[in-house]
Amino acid sequence: MKISENIKNFNKVSEEIQYPVLPEVVSVSSNEIKQLIEESKHTDRKRMRLCTHTDPSHGLHEMLIVHEKDTYVRPHKHLGRTESFHIIQGRTDVVVYEDDGNIREVVQMGEYNSGYNFYYRLNQSLFHTMLIYSDHLVFQETTSGPFDPALTLFAPWSPAPSETEASGIFLKNLIKDIANITASSKL
Fold it and tell me: Which stretches make up the Cupin fold metalloprotein WbuC cupin domain (predicted)?
């Protein structure tokens, strides 16, 4: 695994994740966002995460995240946790599901001046995913910590990211489903 140069005042701990070196005051400029976007293009999963909390055990997790277009985010839910997104740059739909895989709601999102929702909060433990339309999506995610992978459940009706062909088909079908939902809501 090639780990590129750290973003100023951040330490890269994996191909996709960086934590602050000096956690007392954490600030991020457009230069760091540009670097995150560039670095996301060169990761296996086409994403980067700049954590502004000190480590995975912290009680509040705030992250700046970049996903490239067509990034597959497997539908998942977090047990006993809320999460919120604030879109900084780009366009996405957050798709919320019932446990059986039927779409419950589509939250169309974009940056503040886009005319779309720029903020959402998920207060219940519901399966959800993102469908990214722009070349890249930059967003802030906030959730409670500490991080415990056992508290994230992946939808059994969705393919694992390692199932490349199946996840590609899943995304194509999701695009069609959302187009149908959007078209019927305009009637």
Answer: 30-108
Query: By C-alpha distance, which of 109, 154, 117, 130 is closest to 47?
Result: 130
pLDDT at 75: 99
86 burial (CB, 10 Å; 0-12 / 13-18 / 19+) is middle
Q: What is the pLDDT of residue 3?
A: 41
Instruction: Determine which helix (DSSP H) or strand (DSSP E) holds 107, and give its type and residue range.
Output: strand 103-110
Q: Is the pLDDT of residue 2 over 90?
A: no
Q: What is the pLDDT of residue 118?
A: 99
Find tokens 């994996």 and name the residue: 14
* 92: enclosing H helix or E strand: strand 91-97
> If you search the block for the tokens 């059994």, which residue do you land on?
156
45 residue type, one letter: R
Rounded to an integer, the average pLDDT of 58-81 is 95
Give yes or no for a contact between 52 and 28, defined as CB atoms under 8 angstroms apart: yes
122-to-51, 70, 96, 102, 182 alpha-carbon distances in Å: 20, 23, 9, 17, 21
The superfamily in CATH containing domain 10-185 is: Jelly Rolls (2.60.120.10)
Cα–Cα separations (whole angstroms), residue 184 to 30, 40, 63, 95, 180: 38, 35, 35, 16, 6
